[in-house]
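Design job #97: recover the sequence.
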């Protein structure tokens, strides 16, 4: 039989002269030191041993430095694979088709003044057989008509085309070939449409915006770079900038004295 008496009950029994015999209480164990408690908690919560392959991977992840991009990726999300950057800045291999007159039926007597002796348009992504067909061709026609060049019989179009892989080695030096065309036609202005055509024609690798801002020379003839029609169909917000380039080309031709 055991008695569970609190301190007040024991005091009352002592005052009444009653002796209470009870087993000695076992003292509570002292709390372990802080270092031992932390060590025992770490031992209890330690994960199970990893297989050798996973352990090696964990060791590598602890020792290898993390980049800022790796730290930004949330756990469990696979990082996006970035495509490799193209090597080199050389222009792609292109074939230059013989220039063709766009408006051969125009009457030279009705050609408005200020359009110069002729124009050469260099473009890519147009059909060599029907350059003014399709959406891109119709947009090019509208651009030239806005400049009234449809009334000029000496408006020529030289189309650049990407050759098949089997004929890539036969691609000519576009810059040298165009210099020969300019020397033959003697245009008052060369319009280069698009970044691909600009890189191939001028042998330059700068962005299109920088090429547009400059006045270039091709075999002694001034050349202006602007957007190509295919790009303007996808990004119509750049049509105003393209029109500004065309007006700049017109102003340069009008400011050039006519050759005797």
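Job complete. Output follows.
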């Amino acid at each position: 039989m055991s008695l569970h008496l609190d301190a007040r009950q024991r005091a009352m029994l002592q005052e009444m002269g009653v002796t209470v015999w009870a087993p000695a209480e076992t003292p509570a164990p002292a709390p372990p030191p802080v270092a031992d408690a932390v060590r025992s908690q770490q031992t209890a919560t330690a994960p199970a041993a990893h297989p050798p392959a996973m352990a090696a991977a964990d060791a590598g992840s602890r020792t290898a430095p993390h980049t800022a991009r790796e730290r930004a990726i949330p756990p469990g999300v696979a990082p996006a694979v970035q495509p490799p950057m193209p090597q080199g800045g050389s222009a792609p291999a292109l074939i230059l088709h013989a220039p063709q007159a766009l408006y051969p039926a125009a009457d030279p007597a009705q050609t408005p003044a200020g359009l110069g002796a002729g124009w050469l348009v260099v473009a890519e992504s147009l059909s060599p057989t029907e350059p003014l067909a399709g959406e891109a061709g119709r947009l090019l026609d509208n651009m030239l008509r806005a400049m009234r060049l449809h009334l000029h019989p000496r408006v020529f179009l030289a189309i650049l085309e990407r050759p098949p892989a089997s004929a890539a080695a036969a691609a000519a030096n576009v810059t040298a070939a165009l210099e020969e065309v300019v020397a033959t036609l003697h245009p008052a202005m060369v319009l280069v449409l698009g970044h691909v055509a600009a890189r191939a024609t001028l042998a330059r690798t700068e962005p299109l915006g920088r090429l547009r801002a400059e006045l270039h020379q091709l075999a002694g003839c001034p050349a202006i770079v602007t957007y190509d029609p295919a790009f303007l169909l996808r990004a119509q917000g750049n049509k105003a900038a393209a029109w500004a380039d065309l007006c700049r080309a017109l102003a340069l031709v009008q400011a050039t004295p006519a050759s005797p």
